[in-house]
Amino acid sequence: xxxxxxxxxxxxxxxxxxxxxxxxVALSLVSCSEDFIEDPTDTTGANSGVIFSDKSNVETYxxxxxxxxxxxxxxxxxxxxxxxxxxxxVKGNDIIQAFSWYTFDYGHENREATFRRTNFTWDFNxxxxxxxxxxxxxxxxxxxxxxxxxKELIAQGKFFRGFHLxxxxxxxxxxxxxxxDLVRIPVYTEPTSVENVTGNPPVPLSxxxxxxxxxxxxxxxxxxxxxxxxxxxxxxxxxxxxxxxxAVTQDDWPKMSTLAKAAYGGSASTAVQSSSWxxxxxxxxxxxxxxxxxxxxxxxxxxxWGHAAPMMDHLTTSYRATYFDPDxxxxxxxxxxxxxxxxxxxxxxxxxxREFISTKYAFTFASDIxxxxxxxxxxxxxxxxxxxxxxxxxxxxxFALQSARDANATISTNTGQALLDEILLERKxxxxxxxxxxxxxxKRYNLPINRNNIHRIPINVPANSNLFYLKIPQxxxxxxxxxxxFTND
Length: 489
Description:
Layout: H1 16-26, H2 48-51, H3 55-67, H4 81-89, E1 95-97, H5 103-106, H6 116-141, H7 147-172, E2 183-186, E3 202-204, H8 205-222, H9 235-249, H10 253-264, H11 268-271, H12 276-279, E4 289-293, H13 308-312, E5 322-324, H14 326-329, E6 341-342, E7 357-358, E8 369-373, H15 374-387, H16 391-405, H17 416-431, H18 437-444, E9 449-450, E10 460-461, H19 474-479
Antiparallel strand pairs: 1-5, 2-3, 4-8, 6-7, 9-10
Keywords: Cell outer membrane, Membrane, Signal, Transmembrane, Transmembrane helix
InterPro entries: SusD-like_N, SusD_RagB_dom, TPR-like_helical_dom_sf
Organism: Asprobacillus argus
């Protein structure tokens, strides 16, 4: 695991104190890949004894972890969590990315062992795994925190560890069910220190997923339903993330349905109600948003960095880099509120791939960034019902979303594979530009990603292609002796 902390790694955060306190503990923690850490400008008042002596201080440390999600690392396309998600979004056949940031992700070229996408994704997630382990260890050893507070705070740490291990195994390994014994990445459950610079060995995917599931189950058991705000995590967020995990493992559909229902609140028709489609998709106060990154346009924002809004909004000053495939646009009816596609440039004849833009996002510096939404959980519930043989219930859940987005929608009559295909298409239509649902679904279902010739890069990615995952970073290969002899394909 490589943990390098840069002075400008997080320029805008929940608060300066949150970042300082998080880094104050982490400054002494490095791994096998680097033997230095560059000090931040101000490290006063931050040590583990102070941080883990009081619940409010620990919560500030947690705010620092969450601030890292909208960080600014090296370039626009390798910032925080938003950058990793948008890199997945452009890999499908719905988005057409101009020659701008994320263009190499769009071309499925950005996976080599020395490339910034690979190194950022590894560093960002393992860094947060380490922050989580510091949190768990510090709270466990605290002599002043109450047992009730310890229980809740350790649950937060386990959530973050499970969440980021899941992101790592998604990014650096092929479909889990193709070979659960495949060895790709290491697991860390203790803080990494200067005394432990060898690095853990990579383990079978089954061990990684076992750790992910155990961490998230522990988090669900002990997290409260309340939280400071939607930027923070609670029981429902942990339930939603574990739902995503089970959508990948595909070995417990009843549990997946139960978790999804708990996350969206049980009433699908209520859960999917949203005003975001009419107002620029930038306000986390929408009841349908489950977990999001808060931004306020000043000290808590990442300005023009690479989440979907500055890429997709062509009506304000931003990158104006994202266009949409006409075949994808044609899947939306005229009465669908999500059909916000327009030809504003009039260039379809000369540059067909630039025909359609979308006004889904209205970009400002205060645009909040969605991470999880209840509608995803409703569709996961529909998917689970389908696999359990409850097709009527699956159609009903699917229709709950479709009818909320399109007043003229009619309930599906599809059965069998056609019904599952419709559910997966609805995921593409509902979450385009957010977290890469087509990439996620194609990978877990062993499906190809095929583009038509209108695309700027009309690549076809075969099912099970190694383009669905990143190579292990070369630094890790060079400095972790446990990777000796490893085939980095």
